[in-house]
Design goal:
The structure is a homodimer of 435-residue chains. Chain A has helices spanning 12-21, 31-44, 46-57, 70-77, 82-100, 139-152, 170-179, 189-198, 215-224, 249-260, 275-291, 295-305, 314-324, 336-340, 357-362, 398-414, 418-434, and strands at residues 3-6, 107-110, 116-123, 126-130, 156-160, 183-185, 208-210, 229-230, 238-243, 267-272, 307-310, 328-332, 348-351, 388-395. With 435 residues, chain A is α/β, with parallel strands linked by helices. Chain A folds into three domains: 31-230, Nitrogenase molybdenum iron protein domain (Rossmann fold, 3-Layer(aba) Sandwich); 236-378, Nitrogenase molybdenum iron protein domain (Rossmann fold, 3-Layer(aba) Sandwich), CATH 3.40.50; 396-434, no CATH class.
């Protein structure tokens, strides 16, 4: 049974805190195995990757087959039905248009002291995107990772996607093609992450690795962090729906199930000021769970992690939501703009009943790679800036150095960093000589 | 002896690659100890922090003494000499002015389909800043971490600074006061990171932890990553100076030593197209090393990690620099603007001979917390965005849903996510009913 809480009840704070602290996922400890795989790929390169792919994906390859040829990609893409191709193209176009607005601006100015200051953004040169194979092989995730990288200006974008028993997903390859991906490797697991981070004879190393994956992939990303940049380590996913009496209980139920069907550890939470609506949503969820294709997964998620929280008013709903800091927040209320203004922590907000979260998974435009497991308190969804970095610029004139140099010297001495002070003093002495 | 390389020599590529791959720092493996400390603080809260502080800092406190009182801070700050206070105030003012320009803008627009899209930035609610105690207790680092957090809008900013044997650094407390820090705790090590991440009876938890620290602090930050956000894990620091025949060899030598004096694992690299200048810089370094206060540290850094690289021209210098992706890059050349335009990867660029790197450590304005150990390839110095996160916004109208909903449904079905498709279909059916 999902959890039922009432924000007006005296025991609410205790129960809600326990609910927030509940662990939804047991991460198996695969760290030793992953460390071994990474060391092996570093030491033996392609040979290790070929052997590990034979072992884990039951696929015998030679080193020169690790990468899909253009002809192979062409042939697979031709299998995609026209309707799906058109839908994917619409998604790519909309995602690109949204992300192009995120391109940051450089800045340069001269301040009162005469110092020229500024910064300059530049793209990461090479990025690698991990794409899961099998059941969770989502072409939409390829678009969501690859398009921001290309919009940022990444020159070399590689993806790795395992093809267990040789099965490749044509839609994933089409998504890669539409996104401008430069290289596609049919490898997966920790060995793929290691190959991207350290390079092999046939796979040049990258500077940044993004994309979702299982426990092995997550552990490998953690291990190579520092050698390369990584995106967040994704945890179990969640949706929180705030609904008032204007919401359609069927729609709310389907929106919650569209989160629950991902994964047994996914979480769907309804927060409402209307007990009648709460009952109707719960009934609608149960009805849908009778026939839904993925009813076993969605049912387990709902029973084990679902929640219904009754609140006295929408202000309280916003506060409850901020405590959760949900990955996805849907506002199925009469005035979603007002309610959105009360929210501090959420990965993405879907406003009004005409905006099901699933729109955002595919064609809305914003990214669907979002901070999970309460991390929206401190992090953002994937975006163009994740594939860029900023270089700060400073240029002193003699006048600027005269104005601010003595303070730098004073502070250097106070920190016992003599050479720092001398490097400023030498120039100030020269200026004094020059008069 | 530092490494001498000539980019025109046939063996250059091999030797330069070896130089780039050389490990400058042995990180002791303290992970098990840190795991124990974190578990202890989570389980026993203040009691654990008090005991660990007695053990590691030789300081007996009660739980209510963990935090500095305002009166204690006032008393310590009064000890700061006027000259240092004025210098620190100038630094704070300039750092604040620079970082205020980094505040990002929200966006909202309506696209061709009629969808309202956008994003909204908001600050992390609570942040914690780790400040090392003892020798590496730098007030300038307090400014560089705390000011961006406050500019971002962080409501609650706590710092932890260990006071071994009870010794507090008045300048650190003044820097905290000038930056608007809200809470100061006299604790350090992994126990301070654990207390900030998980909270204790007297220390409320934060959402993000930044700041430098030793191996214990770094290991603790890695461990709490996910529960809270962290900044980068700082590695050994480096400077690369590109100089032509217009550069003053004394100044270049002092600039390189101002990096070398930080730490034996720090690195100073000179890249020049002028062999005469190279010789003069090496001689000047040797002369300075005879008298410099921190000559043992700086000398070890120079001998073990220093390098001089001769290049045929400045274009090659830029390419060599990009391979290093230095934390600090100084351009002591006649036309620094032109050369800066050729650089892709650097944490901060200091342009022209009047801009010693030490200016940027204190009073330039840009942040001095910068990506080390080649990570400027994929990451930026600390900035206001590190204390903010972005929430994406989507709002569909019935018309927008009609336009793009069918594509979402198609893609949901192709990914075998039925509830996703149904959540869109239910709304489309309603629109069809409405006609």
């Amino acid at each position: 049974m999902p959890v039922f809480l009432n924000a007006a009840a005296p025991e609410f704070e205790t129960e809600f805190t326990a609910f927030l602290g509940a662990k939804r996922e047991d991460s198996p400890d695969v760290d030793d195995i992953v460390a071994g795989i990474i060391a092996d790929v570093r030491a033996r390169g392609d040979d290790a990757v070929v052997e590990l792919t034979a072992k884990f994906d039951r696929l015998e390859l030679t080193a020169d087959q690790l990468r899909f040829s253009e002809a192979e990609v062409d042939a697979l893409i031709e299998q995609v039905p026209a309707e799906e191709r058109v839908a994917l193209e619409l998604a790519a176009t909309r995602i690109r248009a949204y992300h192009e607005r995120q391109l940051p601006e450089d800045a340069q100015w001269t301040d009162e002291a005469g110092a020229e200051l500024g910064w300059r953004w530049s793209a990461v040169s090479a990025a690698g995107l991990y794409v899961p194979g099998g059941l969770a092989s989502y072409p939409s995730s390829v678009l969501m990772n690859a398009i921001p990288a290309k919009v940022a200006g990444v020159e070399r974008l590689a993806i790795t996607v395992p093809t267990p028993d040789g099965h490749a997903n044509p839609l994933v390859l089409l998504a890669a093609r539409l996104s401008g991906v430069d290289e596609i490797y049919r490898i997966g697991g920790a060995q793929a992450v290691a190959a991207l981070a350290y390079g092999t004879e046939t796979i040049p190393p990258v500077d940044k690795i993004t994309g979702p994956g299982n426990a092995f992939v997550a552990a490998a990303k953690r291990r190579v962090f520092g050698k390369v940049g990584i995106d967040m380590i994704a945890g179990p996913s969640e949706i929180l729906v705030i609904a008032d009496n204007t919401a359609d209980p069927e729609w709310v139920a389907l929106d919650m199930l569209s989160q629950a069907e991902h994964d047994e550890s996914a979480q769907a939470i309804l927060v409402t000021d209307d007990a009648t609506l709460a009952d109707a949503v719960v009934k609608a969820v149960e009805t849908q769970l009778e026939t839904l294709e993925r009813r076993e997964i969605a049912g387990a998620s709902w029973r084990d992690n679902g929640a219904v929280i009754l609140v006295p008013n929408l202000e309280t709903a916003a506060k409850v939501s901020d405590r959760v800091a949900p990955e996805h927040l849907e506002l199925c209320v009469a005035d979603p703009d007002r309610l959105a203004g009360l929210i501090k922590h959420a990965g993405a907000i879907f406003m009004g009943s005409w905006t099901p979260e699933a729109i955002g998974d595919y064609v809305g435009g914003p990214n669907h790679v979002l901070p999970t497991a309460r991390s929206a308190r401190f992090s953002s969804g994937l975006n163009v800036l994740d594939f860029m970095k900023k270089t700060t610029l400073s240029k002193m004139t003699p006048g600027a150095l005269r104005a601010i140099g003595p303070a730098a010297e004073t502070l250097a001495i106070s920190e016992s960093l003599e050479a720092h002070g001398l490097s400023v003093r030498a120039r100030l002495n020269k200026l004094n000589e020059l008069g």
